[in-house]
Amino acid sequence: MGASNFSDEVLAGDSADYARTVEELKASYGFDFVAIGLTAFLGAPLKWIYSAGATDERHHRIVLAPGHGIGGIVIKAGKPMMFVDIDEEIDPQEYSSYPIVFAEDLHSFCALPLTKTGRVVGALLCAYRSVDARNQQVYRQVISDLQGRLGDLGVVDDDFMDFDRIAVEQRNESRDSPFLVHSEVSCVIAAQEEERKRISRELHDGIAQELLAVSFLMKRLESHVGDDEGRQLLGETFANLDRILDELHNLSVELRPSALDHLGLIPALRSQASLLEKAYGTEVVFEGGLSCRRFDQALETQAYRICQEAILNACKYADTDQVYVRLEDTGGWLHVSVIDHGGGFDTEHPVIKGTGCGLSGMQERAKLIGATLRIESGAGGTEVVLVAPMRGQEREECV
Fold first, then answer.
1. Which residue from 204, 291, 313, 358 puts its CA 20 to 30 A from 272's CA?
2. Distances (CA, A) of 126 to 57, 78, 278
């Protein structure tokens, strides 16, 4: 069947039935959060459409490409996954791979693939916001009670993905190690940026262009395909190619957005914000403006990376629906603020998450351009303020 027919088939179930199902599962088994995510067609992103126990609407804005996030991994692998204690079983460096965990503060979950006519078309997520030794027993009971069906959808309930248990890493040794001196850090950051730029260019100008060429050849082939099955396969191939191109674009932007090199700071930040909004469901609001179209390359690069880290941290950890980015250049200084009104943190003794290098890396980048970076956080939210000198700005670059 073509993409549009496949979409109709997947969504043919009564939406009221799906909504009622998630409510009943939550009430019957005592889950804190239950959601059903569906794809519009084979190879399309997954969205959490039906839910019960949500803290807000942010999770509905999360869009997961196959292989990304809990839902995306489940639909791509076609296998269930379960974590009874996320903090113990998932490496902190991998937290960002599961945006729903941040959106709903989940600490234990079971995700089951949902099928239609033998194809994986969605995922059922049952989760708790606390850790309890009985959680796994409850997940197993749900699987037993469902008996492989969820309304008009099949449920894959065996052959769980084999994730190795990873203990929380001890960081005492790394904390006692001497820090890199400023000059060494500068060299590392510069080398990283050059490598990011190279890989991003290869993805965009190399692999992506090759795939586009394949897509054009297939379009020429389309008129020569006469049977329904051939057109169905061709339609599915087009959908997969589009998905792969989207993923390559996202990777390229993450590494080094071309907008930063060709258009400047604000377009690059808007491009990054668009990706984060889809990944985490948090709206990024831009305020103010800049009188200068372009800045010194080093200033643009470091200001972008600092803002990128600040926005990402807010989306992942602040538990907020909106993040504000304010920009202004005046009196020879660039002022950039990233503000959220979510849960703050102890700036003196922050809890180390992920690689634990974010805040220190931001400070080092600020030093490279002679800027000051102020980070204030508390119960009312977090504010990150960068004030950088605009050295050597050309007059024609400003309006």
1. 291
2. 17, 17, 22
- Hey, which residues does 154 pair with through a beta bridge? 115, 149
Query: CA 10 from chain center: how many Å?
Result: 25
Q: What is the distance between the terminal CA atoms of the chain, rounded to a whole angstrom?
A: 55
Alpha helices in the chain (DSSP H): 3-10, 15-29, 69-77, 86-89, 99-104, 135-146, 172-176, 182-202, 208-222, 228-255, 258-262, 265-280, 297-317, 358-368
pLDDT digits (tens, 9 = 90+) for 184-218: 445 555 556 565 666 656 665 667 677 777 777 77
Greater model confidence, 300 or 360: 300
Structural tokens at position 290: 């800049």
Q: Binning pLDDT at 50, 70 and 90, where does residue 166 land?
A: very low
How does pLDDT run across 108-140, given as a tens digit for each residue? 999 999 998 888 899 999 999 999 989 999 999
Q: What topology is assigned to 3-155 in CATH?
A: Beta-Lactamase (3.30.450)
C-alpha closest to that of 36 among 116, 102, 96: 116
Residues linked to residue 155 through DSSP beta bridges, in sequence order: 114
Q: pLDDT category, 221, cuts 50, 70, 90?
A: confident
Q: Which CATH number applies to 264-399: 3.40.50.920, 3.30.565.10, 3.90.1640.30, 3.30.420.360?
A: 3.30.565.10
User: At 13, which amino acid appears?
Assistant: G
Question: Distance between CA 95 and CA 311 in Å, rounded?
Answer: 16
Q: CB neighbours of 292 closer than 8 A, spacing ≥ 6?
A: 329, 390, 393, 397, 398, 399
Residue whose structure tokens are 């296998």: 79
Measured between alpha carbons, how far is 305 from 193 in angstroms, rounded to an integer? 10
Cα separation values, 330 from 187, 232, 269, 312, 390, Å: 30, 58, 20, 26, 9
